[in-house]
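Minutes, project check-in

Agenda point 3 was the complex the collaborators sent over. CS summarized: two entities, 905 residues total, and the question is how they sit relative to each other. Sequences were read into the notes so everyone works from the same version.
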Amino acid sequence: MSELRFDDVTVRYGTARRPFTAVDGVSLTVPAGQVVGLVGESGSGKSTLARAAVGLAPVHSGQILLDGEPVPRRGRVRPLQMVFQDPFSSLDPRMTIGESIAEPMPPGPSRAERKREVQRLLSLVHLDPVMAGALPGRLSGGQRQRAALARALAGQPKVVIADEITSALDVSIQGAVLNLVRELQRELGLSILFISHNLAVVRYVASHVAVMYQGQIVEQGPVSEVLVAPRHDYTRELLAAVPGSRPSPQAHPAATARSSS
Amino acid sequence: MARRWMRVLRTPLGLTTGVLVAAVVVLAIVAPILWGDRADAVDTDNILTGPSAEHWAGTDGLGRDIFFRSLVASRLSLELALVATVLGVVVGLLLGTAPLLVGRRLGRLVTAGVNIAVAFPGLLLALFFAVVFGVGATGAVLAIGLAGAPSFARLVQTLVAGVASLDYVSAARVAGVGRVRILLRHVLPNIAEPLVVNATLAAGGALLAFAGLSFLGLGVQQPSYDWGRLLFEGIGTIYVNPMAAFAPGLAVLIAGLAFNLFGESVAKGLGVTTVGGVPVLPANDAKRSGAGEDEHSTADAARPSPSDLVLDVQDLRVSFPGADGPIRPVRGVTFSVRHGEALGVVGESGSGKSLTALAVAQLIEEPGHVDAARLDFRGEDLREGPRAHRHLLGTSMAMVFQDPMTSFNPTRRMGGQLAEVAVHHQGMTRKQALARAVDRLRAVRVPDPEKRATQYPHEFSGGMRQRAMIGMGVMGNPSLIIADEPTTALDVTVQQQVLDLLQSIRDEDDVALVLISHDVTVVGEVCDRVLVMYAGRIVEDLPADQLDGGARHPYTRALVAAVPDMHTDLEQPLAVVPGRPVDPADVPVGCAFAARCPLADDHCRAVDPPLAPVGDGISVACWHAGEPLGLDEETGELMEAETV
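CS then shared the predicted structure for the full assembly.
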């Protein structure tokens, strides 16, 4: 169990003359063994923040700390792992599921041990261990996302970043992946930064939530507080936009239309 | 992989050129061994003779047989071409992958260098190198190889950049995999196919280039000879013995064509399939397709009078030809939409919901086939084909698609694109139509519509584009809007605005709405009535307010329970539908949902349940409709209530 801390992190793209600040002085803590939800619209910088943490985006200023130490960005041991949004592009189509999962494993163990570990991880994410030999093309979207989770876990991460991992999936499959995230978090005591644009999803998996808007965090706190008594306008707007959560008279104008006709 | 290469060989062109390439290679190997002596045999009695029974293509200045010399020359010609190609490919690969390996700044320098080199004409480079390296075979190999390298490097760069931006490469970087290893494990295998194809093409090109250089006297020098050299020698005596030039010329032509066409057919054969290996469709039982023909909806009695209906669909079927008999993604769908009604259609990907909408809008293209017992839109029979009703469809039915970016022409201004509808279908002048377009943009709450109408689609945000798309739909006076996943690509807040917009258009103008979505909560919020589709059939037809608690079909109930909302019990797992959706090419006998249903018994697996009314305005196709269901506490999988 480890704590991930973003300390006044700024990420800038573009040239020095025309800089574009994607993340603007964000401070955020993912406490050890907790799930923190990060919500915001597309372009708000939430994915960029995640990519900066794992070294896929350049940090302009500020620090990203894991248990007080800077996150290692070089070498074979990466205590921070990420699961990507689109399970159709996050697995190499030419590598078997087993090979993909074995990739982030720290060096050392023998081939047989690795194979056993792959089997263990597959059953951990409720996939049939024989899937280790299959190519991703054979798997459904939900199964691929499970495999992607297993790969992230293979790196023996202290913190996992899940970037919109359900938004490319059908809602019927989304539920299964969310169940799995909760189960893994409970069993393994993982710290997770869970990025989503859907507040209902975040409410279901996270204990804390941070709301990002135009590169800045505008509100953060325990889910029970932020979602019940939002203080920032944008949070209120997000809350109002969750399907099925609208105030009742406005909720079904269809019903009034029907009764009047 | 091997299967796909086999597929290339199964095409007539692929097979012919493949055999030809193999023949040329075999010839190059065996010709010098078999006929080397005869090709070099000097026959002073027969100098510069024409074709004869002894010398098929005549003889050269030393009386050597030109036919055999042409055959033997294949070794050197091919060798040189291949060495030059390998040289070009290796240098190209090094330069092309350099940006990935050496870091951003140095990589940019390499890219710039390659870009400049590409701009030089290849033949000019070859001539330049030929002068630098001296006249002869070595110089020519270096010249042609290096001249081919820049374009290959450019190709590699483009391919590498495409793969390197994909998530699985990011994932490997996050996993701590080194750059070289990423290149070898992830990038090169995924770009290998286009590279092989292009290398084959390059070999053909090199063959021709060598012939050209040797012909000019810059390539192979005596006493060695390749086709170009023979051609050079033959051309001098062309009036005496045309065959002396014709034989090596024909050899160059055949070999060059073989390589080029083989490369092309491989490119074509591999290009049409997507990377990743699409699973082969399982064998389809043709007899099965007849099942269920006789099961029409029994809801006819409850049907409102036809004049009420905007859309009346009965037994709609869509089929596509497949490798093993027709694939039927929509199998007998019956529904109707009243004036001003909002009908939701939900189901997972592949349930046939989008195809149903496209079939209604007459947008299914060949080779797809639409069939229906009735397909009436505002009293007109649409089965006569889209041509007969172009005007009606253009003005009275509006389609809104998931991705508005691909629905607009990126090179034309928004106002003009909207106006086109009115010019074509309502006979307005250009000016009137533009005014109407601005008015409609205002109606869909696009701010500052006068200015927006002069902008291009890329200047609109996703939500704004979707509004404009709806605006285009209401250019006429539609009585039906079909919206296919209109908000799936949008953020939740924007999604809400678009749904509100659809709602208000509906209220103001009494427009009927068919809203297709995989998200049952979205549909439940906007619609009066919901159709739940599974495997190309409607499995439940119910009022939207019955979704939560009133649904009878186990699939509907699972869909509702699978989506978390702001009141979901945090202690319980979300509902999970185990198993996979039905493959439309292989629909099982009986209830299509049986394999994933906890309530299914032998009867379900044998007989497909018809859609039948069960009260409360609900129709359901299930033998066990409404029987209690529970969720597994651990996994969230559906199960029979008793076992919980």
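Noted in discussion: Chain A has two domains: 4-79+157-260, 92-154.
Follow-up: revisit at the next meeting once the mutant set is ready.
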